[in-house]
Structure formats: C-alpha cells, structure tokens
Amino acid sequence: MAAVTIYTKPYCPYCEGARELLTKKGVQFQEIDISGKPDLRAEMIRRANGGSTVPQIFVGERHLGGCDDIYALDARGGLDPILAG
C-alpha cells in the first residue's frame, strides 16, 4: 500500500471527513497539521500545485485533492485501486 499523507488544520470538518473515509478503508496515513506553520503550508501548496485549502491528500507523490475529491473518487470506484498501489 502506498504512503498516504494528509495536510490538515484543527477544527476542520472537511479534514475530519477525509480522515473518516481513510480510516474506514483501513488506511494508515501521516497527518501534517499546517496551522501556524508557514513552511509546511508552503510545502502543501507547492505539492498541491497551488491548492491552498485543507485537507490536501496525497498517495505517494500523487495528489488526490481534498475531501470532496476523494469521496467523489471513491464513489466512482477509483480510490481503492490508488490506495492499493
């Protein structure tokens, strides 16, 4: 299984939704809290090709987008194959 990284902030309902979906799928992930950390926020924006909202979700170096994006990908049946690597 590929490494999953999720950039988040506290009290973010979209971050919570993304964590819930990944957890439901049994995925372990590295969570990076960017609040008050301009260097990590800049890293997230660079990796997400300008995406500046949280969450931003990556599988390996592949950018999946945010919460709505991974739910839509899952609804189309595309998330599990990506997570499986």
Could you explain the architecture of this structure?
Helix content is 44%, strand content 21%. It has 4 helices and 4 strands, in the order E-H-E-H-E-E-H-H. The longest helix has 12 residues.
- Most strands sheet: 4 strands, mixed
**Could you say which structural class the secondary elements and strand pairing correspond to?**
alpha+beta
Tally the beta strands.
4
Mean of residue pLDDT?
A: 96
Q: Which descriptor suits the 3D outline?
A: globular
Q: What is the rounded distance between the termini?
A: 5 Å
Function: Has a glutathione-disulfide oxidoreductase activity in the presence of NADPH and glutathione reductase. Reduces low molecular weight disulfides and proteins.
InterPro entries: GLR_AS, Glutaredoxin, Glutaredoxin_subgr, GRX_bact, Thioredoxin-like_sf
Protein name: Glutaredoxin
Family: Belongs to the glutaredoxin family.
Pick out its properties.
single chain, 85 residues, alpha+beta, 4-stranded mixed β-sheet, 4 helices, globular
Topology:
Elements: E1 4-8, H1 13-24, E2 29-33, H2 38-47, E3 56-59, E4 62-65, H3 67-75, H4 79-84
Parallel strand pairs: 1-2
Antiparallel strand pairs: 1-3, 3-4
What would a concise description of this structure say?
This protein has 85 residues and is of the alpha+beta class.
